[in-house]
Design brief:
single chain; 460 residues; Growth Hormone, Chain: A; two-stranded antiparallel ribbon; 20 helices; 77% helix; 2% strand; globular
């Protein structure tokens, strides 16, 4: 007899069923991208408005990204305890509330605090969204679906860039407030739409809510037109974890997998966020006006949409590890060449476009891969901790980048150091973590067994 998980993962894909969850989850991801990208456009405007030093300008992105780091930890853990659906909606509501307040900040200190709070809400979107979408996706196309999820990122980043560029004629003292307010209405509408999504049946089964899990599974079978089959659900009591015990759980599950996940997240996202947070300022420093600097950054994010499309194809053809292992270092090399040729006119835009394209081949597969490495009770928190560690590192990166690395080391050497870190991470991944292509979510090469704290792999 099949399990409920197998029934869900063998269902035919229907855009009106799983596709609806994909779109709603992806829109939340789009707002995450919009908000992170906004930091880069806000930095030069706020720097002029409040006459900020280079170090203070770094805090524009740092406050927001650190809030996201805390949110990823807290909401990943909450989602494993209270359910994907409720956490799914609350995160976006918190983000919308503090974004409105941030637009009316009377001084820089309060602005940083409110951006931290907005980041706290939005930081929970990625781990919650990926856990939910992955648990509804058929196994045969799960890699494509999760990789395609990242397509919402360059879309959100590009919309942010288009809005920022379109607002250039408005006085900078008012423009930054309008930028913050611009995305509030769509965020609230998405919060309303999210109320109608079902809870993950895999989560319901894992925490012992068998009857509710069967209701969701039976509804999915009926709506997708699949054959009705008998299936079993092994109801298990919920595993209650604090943030600290959750960290212990993912490390107890597998130190090698968790270390590889964290290294990949930190190195690749550090490379991306360093470019994203400072690119408008870098281009302005080279003599570009606001319109050209904002448009150049928008080009970098826009070509990423094509990168995600390529990523969604390669992830099931080549496999997760190969795509990450090749595209991550190439993206870093493109950024180094951008920095070296910064004074060579059109070459700047060429290498900026190459970086934007290739990095968005790596990131979707990274998100897909890490979300598949953990079993259901640890999936949201395992992904959330990896994401939060990267947010902490990238949160301090704008501060370190703007006040130390860029002024002292220069752009080429700075980007070369981060690229070397990416190479180190993919080499460790090649040794320490298994390939997950085509596997059931709770079945890895090394197997696993339940422990008191969650799941941990058997020895080989």
């Amino acid at each position: 007899m099949k399990t409920g998980e197998q029934i869900v993962q063998e269902l035919p894909w229907k855009w009106g069923v799983q596709g609806r969850i994909f779109v709603i989850g992806g829109l939340g991801f789009m707002f995450d991208a919009w908000d992170v990208t906004l930091n880069g456009f806000l930095t030069p405007l706020l720097g002029s408005y409040w006459d900020l030093s280079q170090t203070e300008r770094g805090l524009v992105a740092t406050g927001n990204l650190i809030g996201m780091a805390v949110g990823a930890v807290v909401w990943g853990t909450i989602a494993d305890r209270m359910g994907r659906k409720r956490a799914f909606a609350i995160t976006l509501l918190i983000f919308a509330l503090f974004s409105v307040l941030g637009a009316f900040s009377p001084n820089f200190e309060i602005f940083v605090l409110l951006r931290f709070c907005a980041g706290f809400g939005l930081g929970g979107c990625i781990p919650v969204d990926y856990a939910l979408v992955s648990e509804f996706s058929p196994r045969r196309i799960r890699g494509k679906v999760l990789s395609a999820m990242d397509g919402w990122w360059p879309i959100g980043a590009t919309i942010c860039g288009v809005v920022a560029t379109a607002l250039v004629p408005i006085d900078g003292d008012v423009r930054w407030r309008i930028m913050l307010l611009f995305m509030i209405l769509p965020a609230l509408l998405l919060f309303w739409v999210r109320r109608g999504i079902p809870e993950s049946p895999m989560y319901l089964a894992a925490v012992g809510r068998e009857e509710e899990a069967r209701t969701v599974i039976d509804d999915l079978v009926a709506r997708t037109g699949a054959d009705v089959q008998q299936y079993s659900i092994t109801a298990e009591p919920p595993v209650k974890r604090t943030a600290l015990s959750g960290v212990k759980a993912v490390w107890s599950y597998s130190p090698r997998i968790t270390s590889a996940s964290w290294l990949l997240f930190v190195s690749i996202m550090l490379l991306y966020y360093a470019a994203l947070s400072w690119m408008p300022s870098i281009l302005r420093r080279e003599g570009y006006d606001d319109f050209a600097a904002f448009a150049g950054t928008t080009l970098m994010t826009a070509v990423g949409i094509l990168g995600v499309a390529v990523s969604a194809y390669l992830v099931e053809v080549v496999g997760r590890k190969w795509v990450i292992g090749i595209s991550g270092p190439i993206a870093g090399a493109a950024l180094v060449l951008f920095a070296i040729m910064l004074d060579v006119g059109s070459a700047v835009l060429v290498w900026l476009a190459v970086f934007g394209f290739v990095i968005q081949i790596a990131i979707p597969v990274l998100y897909c891969y890490v979300s598949e490495l953990y079993p259901t009770p640890l999936r949201a928190s395992g992904f959330g901790y990896a994401s939060s560690v990267s947010r902490i590192a990238t949160g301090f990166a704008p501060l370190l980048f703007g006040s130390v690395m860029w002024p002292i080391l220069g752009l080429p050497l700075t980007f070369a150091i981060v690229t070397a870190f990416v190479v180190l991470a993919v080499l460790w991944m090649a040794y320490a973590a298994p390939e997950t292509k085509g596997r059931e979510l709770d079945t890895l090469e090394i197997g696993f067994q339940r422990t008191q704290m969650g799941y941990s792999p058997d020895s080989r």
